[in-house]
Specification:
There is one protein chain. By secondary structure, the protein is of the alpha+beta class. The chain contains 11 helices and 18 strands. Strands 3-2-1-9-10 form a 5-stranded mixed sheet, sandwiched between helices. A 5-stranded mixed sheet has the order 13-12-11-17-18, with helices on both faces. α2 packs across α3 and α5 runs antiparallel to α7. The chain is globular, with a radius of gyration of 20 Å. The model has no long low-confidence stretch (mean pLDDT 93). The structure holds adenosine-5'-triphosphate and magnesium ion (MG). The site of magnesium ion has 5 residues, from loops.
Length: 334
């Protein structure tokens, strides 16, 4: 009963997601930490997110993940230990963890995942699974069969493009493009067009509430920021069209990368993908009409899925509960 107490973890850049094997207990928390003078931890998780952009100068609020891998091992370990402690009423200390990683994660990066988990949990029972495989399982695709599937996960900091067949990621690409990049584009547009400096939180709200592709409702939202010239507080009303236009270049870059990966798929698998279509997941896939826009540009059916932010963690859970899928996980290369 090696995996009796195995827990699923998705160390998302935006949200850290934890589940027990039965899916009975779960914890979602912002993947953020606030540290004073590089040493004293002030807040972790949602509390740190609350402080973000309101923090005093001696406090740094940051996410320990970047580009799908660990950027600060010390901070990631702090966030994970704290989050696991909140979870320990359910999670036994001796339990192992299964976590999803980008496909092309290097041995050094794998080692970082392993170290962070062993340090925060005093366990060496760590299993890794490719994010694309976890997403595919959550979508209900038969990942073990020899036919080809293509999944695109647009998260907060990365876009993971995966082509899957025979229980493996045959082609995988991790792009440093995701929701945060879109937020930056929105903030830049607001600075240039409206002469207002806004924070990333405001930009994110604008994206999530107003952005659309092709056609969408002409909504608007009031924002508050700092006037770029006077430095005084200023507010304005931002139309959804301006927000949508601001993000189009980044969306188009993602589409170009999807086309490039699709162009490299071996013919027998690309035939399957052409028939089945491409599955779109990750939080950013919730942008209104994004799948329709992608379908038009790429010329293949594009499907979006229910509750896309949780697709990776749902897949991890299914994988640790099904023996034939558990074999797709691996121990980190040490
Ligand atoms: N309605 C929405 N429209 C557009 N984007 C959204 C919406 N809701 C959430 N998002 C964005 O989705 C992203 C979070 O998605 P997700 O939880 O998949 O990311 P993550 O797994 O934490 O990040 P990553 O996989 O890149 O490490 C954020 O950028 C968030 O702003
Ligand atoms: Mg993710």
């Amino acid at each position: 009963m090696l995996f009796k107490s195995l827990y699923g973890v998705d160390l998302g850049t935006d949200t850290l997601k934890l589940r027990d094997k039965d899916g009975q207990h779960f914890l979602d928390s912002k993947n953020m930490i606030a540290v004073r003078n590089n040493s004293k931890v002030i807040a972790i998780g949602n509390d740190a997110w609350e402080m973000y952009e309101k923090n005093p100068v001696d406090v740094e609020v940051s996410c320990p993940m970047s580009g799908g891998v660990i950027a600060s091992a010390t901070n990631m370990e702090r966030v994970l230990s704290y989050t696991l402690r909140q979870f320990t009423t359910f999670a036994r200390k001796s339990s192992g963890l299964c976590l999803a990683v980008p496909t092309n994660v290097t041995p050094v990066e794998q080692r970082a995942f392993f170290n962070v988990i062993s340090d925060s949990r005093q366990t060496n029972r760590v299993r890794l699974i490719d994010k694309g495989l976890a997403d595919a399982v959550s979508i209900g695709l038969d990942v073990l069969s020899g036919s080809g599937h293509m999944i695109v996960n647009i998260g907060a900091d990365t876009t993971e493009i995966s082509v899957i067949s025979g229980g493996k990621v045959i082609l995988g690409q991790t792009l440093r493009l995701g929701g945060r990049k879109l937020d930056e584009e929105i903030a830049t547009m607001i600075r240039r067009k409206f002469n207002i400096n806004i924070g990333m939180k405001t930009a994110q709200v604008l994206k999530n509430n107003l952005a659309f592709m092709i056609n969408g409702p002409r909504l608007e939202q009031q924002i508050f920021g700092i006037h770029t010239l006077s430095g005084l507080p200023k507010s304005d009303v931002i139309p959804s069209l301006a927000v949508s236009v601001a993000i189009i270049d980044v969306i188009d870059r993602i589409i170009e990368e999807i086309q490039a990966v699709y162009g490299r798929v071996p013919p027998q698998l690309s035939r399957d993908i052409a028939r089945e279509g491409i599955f779109l997941t990750g939080g950013v896939s919730m942008i209104l009409n994004l799948p329709i826009y992608m379908q038009k540009e790429i010329g293949l059916p594009i499907y979006h899925i229910q509750d896309p932010r949780n697709s990776t963690i749902r897949g991890i859970l299914e994988i640790i509960n099904r023996k034939e899928l558990l074999e797709l996980t691996r121990t980190p290369a040490l």
